[in-house]
Amino acid sequence: MDCSFITTNDLRRMFKTLDKNQDGLVTLDELLWILDKLGWAEHTPDELELIVGKQSLDLDEFLRFYYDAVLDSKGSKKNIDVVADNDEAIARAFNVFDVNGDGYISAEELRDVLERLGFEEEAKAWDCGRMIRVHDKNLDGFVDFEEFKNMILHV
Fold this sequence. Notes:
two-stranded antiparallel ribbon, Recoverin, domain 1, 155 residues
């Protein structure tokens, strides 16, 4: 599986992970937590409530929120504020995966982020090293910003 995009099944698993009390709802605090982990949390809880219009989301609303807020109608990635400069949005996404801030994404960092996002089993099963190698055009064993940007823009 390629980590260059989040599928609907991935979102369903995220929802299930976020829904700690298994009531079928994700609260705004839980939504802010995942947005923060993805590097897209730029709103206060009150601002997010104004955007969402309620205190919690069911699965369908969660999926709709993701697709409306994170993806445009053509499916291209954008951040919550729909910044005009794609590099800024891509840099924020890159920084989610560049855990140690050295400017490179390693297989270990990819695995760590997947686990933080609730994909513990998948992180163990997926070959994160292979995923890095697929996008590592300069063959240094890491994905740098330009390689990440190229991956994002050509998904």
